[in-house]
């Protein structure tokens, strides 16, 4: 039988060379395992596994400090951002409040100006009325003045007539004498003589009297306006009268 062949049921017999080979392989395996577990940059040790596992582990402090500083910086940045937002909101609120106050002051100033304008307009209106009252139109105390005053009153009461129509009939009836009286015509015979510039009988004067004038039949303006009012009713206008009426 050849040497070193293991047969079933028999334990192999190790030679001295075999033993030395096995011991060498075990030693190299342990050294390789120790080298692999050692930290980077550390010296290789051939101590056993129990010694390696019991060695203290040292942790650096600088990375932890850096992480803490980074978080603190982030919190500080967030705080500054919040403060900036709050400051912007406060500034916007202040601007809004200032604009509202300015708008309120502007509205109040406009209202005051409008009130002053209305007051000044009312004052000017009162002044104009006063001036017009003081500067009332005046008429001369003669035939020309009486006719012009009568025409103004007639215009106010919508009684037609012209200067020419009044003048021609006055001259024909009384020659311009406000105290003229007819004592010979039928009216005189009946006891109601015609009187004044346009020779009006008393019943006609009373019936066609114009408000705002005298009730005296001899008053020039009252006589003219009453006669013209009567002529407008009967003939359309004193201008249409060319004879006794």
UniProtKB/TrEMBL annotation:
<feature type="signal peptide">
    <location>
        <begin position="1"/>
        <end position="42"/>
    </location>
</feature>
<dbReference type="Pfam" id="PF01464">
    <property type="entry name" value="SLT"/>
</dbReference>
<protein>
    <submittedName>
        <fullName>Transglycosylase SLT domain-containing protein</fullName>
    </submittedName>
</protein>
<keyword id="KW-0732">Signal</keyword>
<dbReference type="InterPro" id="IPR023346">
    <property type="entry name" value="Lysozyme-like_dom_sf"/>
</dbReference>
<feature type="domain" description="Transglycosylase SLT">
    <location>
        <begin position="166"/>
        <end position="242"/>
    </location>
</feature>
<dbReference type="InterPro" id="IPR008258">
    <property type="entry name" value="Transglycosylase_SLT_dom_1"/>
</dbReference>
């Amino acid at each position: 039988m050849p040497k070193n062949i293991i047969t079933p049921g028999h334990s192999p017999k190790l030679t001295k060379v075999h033993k030395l080979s096995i011991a060498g392989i075990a030693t190299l395996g342990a050294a390789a395992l120790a080298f692999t577990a050692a930290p980077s940059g550390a010296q290789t040790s051939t101590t056993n596994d129990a010694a390696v596992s019991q060695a203290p582990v040292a942790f650096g402090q600088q990375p932890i400090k850096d992480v803490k500083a980074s978080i603190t910086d982030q919190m500080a940045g967030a705080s500054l951002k919040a403060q900036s937002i709050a400051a912007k909101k406060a500034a916007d609120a202040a601007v809004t409040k200032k604009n509202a106050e300015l708008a309120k002051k502007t509205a109040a100033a406009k209202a005051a100006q409008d009130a002053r304008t209305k007051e000044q307009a009312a004052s000017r209106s009162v002044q104009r009325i006063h001036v017009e009252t003081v500067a009332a139109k005046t008429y001369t105390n003669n035939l020309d003045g009486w006719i012009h005053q009568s025409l103004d009153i007639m215009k106010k009461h919508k009684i037609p007539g012209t200067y020419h129509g009044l003048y021609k009939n006055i001259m024909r009836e009384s020659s311009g004498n406000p105290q003229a009286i007819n004592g010979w015509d039928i009216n005189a015979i009946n006891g109601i003589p015609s009187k004044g510039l346009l020779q009006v009988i008393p019943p006609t004067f009373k019936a066609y009297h114009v408000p705002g004038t005298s009730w005296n039949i001899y008053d020039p303006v009252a006589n003219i306006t009453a006669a013209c009012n009567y002529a407008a009713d009967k003939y359309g206008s004193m201008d249409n009268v060319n004879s006794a009426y």
